[in-house]
Task: inverse folding
């Protein structure tokens, strides 16, 4: 068995574009992704899975149709499967995402912000 120590700050330092998730590691059937965010993403859902956001630095607003959720460093929020949401970062923000392998960042919306998962 190969054990690799990964450093979140080093991983984030290698990311140059917002909204482009990179796989930090995997746990069972889940990817742990790091991402930098700035600006508004797209409204979308993940019909088959929950999505966990953990803010590392900065501030993130998860816009929901029934109200916004504000997150700061160390905060975690789970968007339930099928709930329409739109992340927004008014300042550069970094976060970890926990999602099943193969989850597309734009969910059911698709479009130009759909990213190919990158390896670190």
Result:
């Amino acid at each position: 068995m190969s054990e690799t120590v990964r450093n979140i700050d080093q991983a984030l330092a290698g990311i140059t574009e917002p909204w482009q998730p990179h796989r930090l590691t995997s746990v069972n059937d889940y990817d742990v992704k790091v991402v930098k965010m700035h600006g508004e993403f797209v409204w979308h859902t993940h019909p088959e899975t929950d999505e966990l956001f953990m803010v590392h630095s900065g501030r993130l607003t998860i816009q929901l149709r029934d109200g916004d959720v504000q997150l700061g460093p160390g905060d975690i929020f789970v968007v339930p499967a099928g709930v329409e949401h739109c992340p927004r970062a008014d300042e550069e923000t970094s976060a970890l995402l926990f999602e099943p392998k193969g989850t597309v960042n734009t969910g059911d919306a698709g479009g130009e912000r759909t990213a190919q998962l990158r390896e670190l």
